[in-house]
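quick one
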Amino acid sequence: MKRLLKLSAVTALATATLAMAGTLEDVQKAGVLKCGVNTGLPGFSEADSKGQWRGLDVDYCRALAAVVLGDATKVKYVPLNAKERFTALQSGEIDVLSRNTTNTETRDTSLGINFTGVMYYDGQGFMVPRALGVKSAKELDGATVCIQAGTTTELNLADYFRSNNMKFKAITFDTNDQVTKAFASGRCDVLTTDASGLYATRTKLKDPDKYVVLPEIISKEPLAPAVRQGDDQWFDIAKWTRNALLTAEEKGVAMANVDEAAAKSTDPEVRRLLSVEGKMCENLKLPKGCFANAIKQVGNYGEIFERNVGVKTPLKIERGLNALWNKGGIQYSPPFR
Amino acid sequence: MPAFLRNEKVRGILYQIITIALFIAFLFFVAQNTAHNIEQRGIKTGFDFLHATAGFDITESPIPYTPMDTHLKVFEVGLLNTLIVSFWGIVFSSLLGLLIGVWRLSPNWLINRIAAAYIETFRNIPVLLQILFWYNVVLATLPSTRQSINLFDTVFINNRGFFMPEFVFGPGAWMIGAALFLAVVAIYLISRWAKKRQEKTGEQFPVFLTGLILLILLPLLAYFLAGRPITAVMPELHGFNFRGGKTYTPEFLALLFALSIYTATFIAEAIRSGIEAVPKGQKEAATSLGLSPLQQLRLVVLPQAVRIAIPSIINQYLNLIKNSSLAAAIGYPELVTIFAGTSLNQTGQALEILLITMLTYLMISLIVSLILNWFNAKMKIKER
Ligand SMILES: N[C@@H](CCC(=O)N[C@@H](CS)C(=O)NCC(=O)O)C(=O)O
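structure w/ glutathione:
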């Protein structure tokens, strides 16, 4: 499968004179948004027992589909592991990659992709069996560490151990399932990935209480959706979809009250966001009310966060950095004007 | 139609020229298009990445490797790991295949059935599943580091691998190698002499026993004469893991197991059909010469059977090498896993890396088949 994907990417690059712009037209013509998501990371992207996709990354796909097509259900999910994701985007197999992917300089500049706004501010952490008695990452000299291939995780890990003058042995797998299984069976002492991923993975372990997450956060992992480079219109749409979700939260516009806000709100920015005033959607070549559709069908950023990963979910993640800028976090949207 | 086109030969050549021209035009079109698309996309190109720092660790490497090394080094490590697992896979699958192939034709009902069951089972399960199976067996059944199975404080077995003493050769160790070489030369000379004598006088000489004694005694003598230059470094538990000594990881072992067991079924079948292709008269002649069944097999049947089987065994060796790339499923760091996998993902240069990888496999396959074809030609029964 993986090799097929890679080869198909290469063939796509080789044969088709791929339309550079025009993702919007393609999506509108197909009537469905092809969204690359994680194969299975609770809270971010996971298919439930009925085959229904759920999660924060999934909700971004749904919001984008609502903005572009007016219907949050018009999404075709393409599950991808870390190694496959960029090739899938480059080859046009997906229209947008929404899969806990860190925005880094190298990826942004050399993969032919562009990152839109950050959906989740994360950082890399460590998880160990409680029985090991380790209290800090600084005690991990000589440890065996399970990681996933093709991630920023494996690079940060090497950097961290080098700068702390410690030795380690990496055991690298292609999927998070393999990483988790190997960790659970004792093949390695430590599992490391994005902190969000640690909490998600811990819910999958047989006895979650037997494992502890160490206090150190060793990296910055701004997780952001990405689109192909060279299609600015599509890039704008992807970016402003995320901004709309944030602005909605900031202005208190939610799933339940969006119609009411459109009818009654006197706040000029809310009126522009919901297409009561101005030409926000038209500027993006989209029909009026595009953002209102997303908020109505998927909710604002806060709702999406709490529903998928918040303190009332098994992941129990605090807003932290992901709180709005005026609530102690750093989530911030440029103005709708 | 002009006159020259009515000539069939001319037409044939013309068709070939047109086909080749079209093919070249097609390649040119593909190359152009690729370059254009890649450039427009802003995807990085070229082979500079080979000299950029890789930045990630590799589970096991036969040569020193750190995350500070380059992607070129990653390529080397991957290639070496591919060659190592393929080499041992070929050795073990050949031995196992030979054994099972002979058993398959055994007149003993039980042995015959066991061999048949082995072949039918392992040949029909996809090798990828077998790799995953052995990996999970290793991980699930072996104890953790602290509960390691301890064999005389020298070998430790746990779910992170087999930890064995590693032998370090001090000064003077060359004497042992020389003694070994001497023993081999002596055995060769003795067996030649014994053969000649047997042809002349009919008397037999215990070549095997003498050889074995020489093979053990000479190096042992050298070992003591040179003042015991070989020392063993024992694996020792340090903090999280065993250090020192030689380690065979579960990834390596599972892959080696699966590849050997799977490929052995095909080699066994090749050997079996080779044996069956040896004319009955050969065996009857051997019986009438008074050779024991084992001697018949060893001296008359197998040498001919193996010759017949070699071409298809070559194919199986090549398959094994290619199948080793399935290691990605369990993370054994061979060429496809780390170079066409991790390096590709970290640099994003799919085209270049896939090209290098495919060319490398092509080269390995060509070299292996060249060597084996040469061997095959040499071994062929010379018809007189
Ligand atoms: N944010 C990091 C890591 C992303 C990543 O792939 N994380 C892993 C571990 S949490 C994952 O999502 N694995 C799920 C899977 O592939 O099934 C990156 O962009 O490289």
